[in-house]
Amino acid sequence: MSPDPALRERTIALVGLMGVGKSTIGRRLAAALELPFRDADHEIEKAAGCSIAEIFAERGEEEFRAGERRVIARLLEEGPHVLATGGGAFMNPKTRSLIKDRAISVWLKADLDVLVRRVSRKDTRPLLAGRDSRQVLQQLMNERYPVYAESDIVIETDDGPAAAAVDAIMGALASRPRAAVD
Ligand code: S3P
User: Fold this and answer.
1) At what angle do helices 61-77 and 93-102 cross, to 10 degrees?
2) Beta carbon of 144 within 6 Å of any ligand 1 atom
3) How many CA atoms lie within 13 A of 24 on its CB side?
4) How far is CA 103 from CA 17, 25, 157, 177, in A?
5) Is the minimum distance from the CB of 137 to ligand 1 under 6 angstroms?
6) Dist. CA 88 → ligand 1 center (Å)
7) pLDDT in tens, 106-155
8) Burial of 27 by CB count in 10 Å (0-12 exposed, 13-18 middle, 19+ buried)?
């Protein structure tokens, strides 16, 4: 069955902490909606010609954040797509306001235990390198959740398959009042 055209009118920006599954779920959501998928971290790496870990190490977090802001602004100029943002992107007031203007924001939320388990599968995240990931993620939850809560839609995810989260997002998008979608 073809996706409802009303769900394909605006970019859908996935927001949430590292490890929550923004890229995996985003890719599947894009396939379900027959929209392009963009991964902001990947686009930043392409633009910089090096990895995020290298950007942090060689140029510092501030430069990374500036690049992240530019790349997301550019992506939001494109037609409707599913956009997986990096965990810190929505914390930047300019990026947040662009996302609010040009996209439907979806906060993917998961328990600390789930996040800790998931981030352990990848060791390339500079904010976690050499640190206790549970402690870092707990601190980021405290700092970021009040801001992530400004998202248009909140989806609780667990350790289940990405398809369940995709279904939940599609359901939430479909039940949004039409006036709020335009
Ligand atoms: C970050 C999250 C990462 C990446 C960078 C910083 C953060 O993206 O942008 O390492 O500040 O939370 P993911 O959320 O895709 O891991």
Assistant:
1) 10
2) no
3) 14
4) 19, 17, 21, 15
5) no
6) 6
7) 999 999 999 999 999 888 899 999 999 999 999 999 999 999 999 999 99
8) middle
